[in-house]
Amino acid sequence: MKARAVIGANFGDEGKGLLVDYLCKTGGDVVVRFNGGAQAGHTVVTPEGLRHVFHHFGSGTLYGVPTFLSQFFICNPIIYFRELMELDAMGVTADVFAHPDCLVSTFADMIINQRKELKRGDKAHGSCGIGIHETIQRSAISELKITMSDLWNRSTTLPSKMAEICDRYAKFRTGTPINEPGMIEMFLKECEAFANAIHPAGIGQCKDPIFEGAQGLLLDQDRIEYHPHVTHSNTGMKNVRTLCAQAGITDVETYYVSRTYLTRHGAGPLPGENPGLSYHDDTNVGHPWQGFLRFAALDDGLRIRCAADAGGEYKLVLTHCDQREPTQLADLYSYGPTRANVRGWKERAKAFN
């Protein structure tokens, strides 16, 4: 088997969905989400104008390519069904599989996350507000941990867990309980429906996978220099290598994706930030939790961090080339041992080495 991995080179929003869509068009069998959760926002636009921003589903879904949610992915039934309705309205269907150890976010995690971020005021972490970090924090307490295995096994402890999470745990995290018994009942029904919709599987069942990363290298939880404005996951090849080892895959083609400039959506430092730079973006509009997209010139560390994460040969894919003048792009083609280019952020990728 051969694997292909798509990884964001910067602070996210680089165009990973565009490349995954292109790779699926050229023969993808399954898209594997290997980190993060439904906070991802990967935009795909077909030549016919069909447009979708993927959160829970893999970015090969418009081609009918199934999605596998690895044990490193955090499931969110609420966002899954919201996205499913959008795809149904477009006439799009694709299977979704998940590992039994996938953590499950609850509505309480989302509320706690949003409460804490609001309290931080001008010291906000830049959270998306959907409870990724809170899910991981809660899951460290075994009595409150919820996984896909619990949902498939119809665990009888789920109602009591949710009651505890909304009462004492929410009070512990924010000082105030979540007094919403109706929401608990609705969420438990949603979990049952989610368990029926998602099929159990393991990475060993994924033939020739395309690994789709979320966020980017500069948001990796190990980037200490950017704490606390990082994501609670490993955004580079670390999880991919673990999954490939489990599946017995030794042949991996790695793609790092970058716009022709830097962006950051959310709080935290952006090296070389230039308020004078502005590029149109239909996906990353103003966000109640992350504000507006910020811009900077592409930094000199791009090749260094990609090479360090890859540990060998890799391909660099540049997107949003149509937003820069040709003379501004000349210096970008020196990056990476091998090169690829993606022309047009509203087009499917046209890559070449």
Describe the structure.
It is a single chain. Helix 3 (107-120) runs parallel beside helix 6. The strands form 4 sheets. A 9-stranded parallel β-sheet has the order 9-7-5-2-10-1-11-14-15, sandwiched between helices. The chain has 2 domains: 2-99 and 201-341, Adenylosuccinate Synthetase, subunit A, domain 1 (Adenylosuccinate Synthetase, Chain A, domain 1); 103-199, Adenylosuccinate Synthetase, subunit A, domain 2 (Orthogonal Bundle). The longest helix is centred in the middle third of the chain and has 17 residues, at 158-174. Strand 14 (315-319), helix 10 (326-329) and strand 15 (338-341) form a beta-alpha-beta unit. With 353 residues, it is an alpha/beta fold. It has helices spanning 16-25, 77-89, 107-120, 132-139, 148-152, 158-174, 181-197, 237-247, 302-310, 326-329, and strands spanning 2-8, 30-33, 42-45, 51-54, 67-69, 74-75, 96-98, 103-104, 199-200, 209-212, 251-259, 262-265, 293-296, 315-319, 338-341. It is globular. Helices cover 31% and strands 17% of the residues.
Report a brief summary of the structure:
The protein is of the alpha/beta class and 353 residues long. The chain contains 10 helices and 15 strands.
Record the SSE blueprint.
Layout: E1 2-8, H1 16-25, E2 30-33, E3 42-45, E4 51-54, E5 67-69, E6 74-75, H2 77-89, E7 96-98, E8 103-104, H3 107-120, H4 132-139, H5 148-152, H6 158-174, H7 181-197, E9 199-200, E10 209-212, H8 237-247, E11 251-259, E12 262-265, E13 293-296, H9 302-310, E14 315-319, H10 326-329, E15 338-341
Parallel strand pairs: 1-10, 1-11, 2-5, 2-10, 5-7, 6-8, 7-9, 11-14, 14-15
Antiparallel strand pairs: 3-4, 12-13
Helix pairs in contact: 2-7, 3-4, 3-6, 6-7
